[in-house]
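Homework help board

Subject: predicted structure for assignment chain

Our instructor gave us this sequence and asked us to write out the predicted structure in token form, then describe one feature. I got the tokens but I'm not sure how to describe them. Can anyone check?
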Amino acid sequence: MGAVDKTCRAAVALCNRDGLHARPAHLFVQTANAYASRITVRREGEAESVDGKSIMGMMMLAAERGAMLALESEGPDADQQVRALVELVEAGFGEE
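My token output:
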């Protein structure tokens, strides 16, 4: 039996002081790329989504502190990918 693609969704608020600037965007992309699944990210309330594995895409969100991000992952490890990304964002990307 082959691998089954799953879809996993979550919403998470940016809680770090400066929002999604270069360093957190890089950490997000680095974490997303550790998984095989595809991930798209959009600001809640916006129609346009970006590739969560693209630093340029993530920077285009221009998401500030408090912004809600909607994550949608599709692939064999979608649930693990979303869990890791939610934990990263909730931890404030390790920033003070």
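Reply (TA_rk): Your tokens look well-formed. For the description, you could write something like this. The helical segments are 22-32, 55-60, 78-90. That's the kind of observation they're looking for.
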